[in-house]
Design brief:
Blueprint: H1 7-11, E1 37-42, E2 54-60, H2 65-80, E3 84-90, H3 99-106, E4 113-117, H4 129-136, E5 145-149, E6 155-159, H5 165-173, H6 178-207, H7 211-224, H8 229-242, H9 246-260, H10 265-276, H11 286-302, H12 308-320, H13 324-338, H14 347-360
Parallel strand pairs: 2-3, 3-4
Antiparallel strand pairs: 1-4, 2-5, 5-6
Helix pairs in contact: 6-7, 7-8, 8-9, 9-11, 10-11, 10-12, 11-12, 12-13, 13-14
Amino acid sequence: MVRRMLLIAALLLSVSLSQQGKAGELKVGDPAPTLKVSKFVKGTPVTAFKPGKLYVVEFWATWCGPCRASIPHLTEMAKKYKDVQFVGVSVWETKPADVEPFVKEMGDKMSYNVAMDDVPEGKKGNDGFMATNWMTAANQDGIPTAFVINKESKIAWIGHPMTIDEPLGKIVAGNWDLKAEAERSAKEMAGKKKMAELNRKIGQALKDKDYNAALTTANDAIAEDSAMEPMLGTFKLAMLKQLGRNEDAHTYLVRLLDEVLKDNAMGLNQTIWPIVDPDAKTKPSADDAKVALKAAIRADELMKSKDPAIADTLAAAYHAAGDDAKAIETQERALKLAKGTEFEKDPSLKQHLDLYKKGKS
């Protein structure tokens, strides 16, 4: 699966599709960019943001499993907030011809306005107008990502669609603190920019197999700016384990899962998987397994039990903790959620279910 990259490689921030162009300075609080798409494939075309109206502009792709998981949630939000215009924009597509069949297949699960990015002839998906002027400009490197546009046609919030409930509710109610959100978002953006230089230094240290230097670089960055810890914490944990500092690693694991990443489902998932991976040669300690299970349950709750990759991790965590009955139940859910996503053809999902059943028998 996507998250099953080699541990160290996975912990370095990779260059994503949206970062192939130069990231601009689009921020929360700024006027929303122009809405320019090639065509609407569902719903009513939205060509401009009208003053006094609220909008949600969400970016997704046909190949994106988490996008498929979040689409029904956006449909729920669109039904709940009928005065808010929801626009889903397909970006970064490698096969644009797949978009309309995908939307048709989703049916009522995708009941809002859906459009395709305006990609110049001969260019790639990440060169599209919306990809460039929204995602790249806002330094957003992953999908699904949603932007909430307020009644003044300004960006009020940027984030994962599965976490849109609270901010959208407050924005609709008129009690959203835009200034505070802009400040929070700006700090997060500054942290991402620092990562570019850190990646260079850490990458060289890893190339030289100087794990102490890599760990020191991460520690120094976190000490200088605590906002860097959510981005560097999982890497720091890996370095502690690489150096054989297992007690320190467990102590830090508890902090990472219980404090630093407690509200970050993807961060929790990325951290937990190497610990509970049923195919790993080394099995986790009882203490690590217990902490990982608690965090896996939290990640699943954050994603409203709708993400196949996180359900797969939770099942592995139950298995690592010795509860194969719950592992089987959760893995069966993961298989159901995987249908129609990039994970459907992953043989490990069924293999792990068989493993858990064997353990229970």
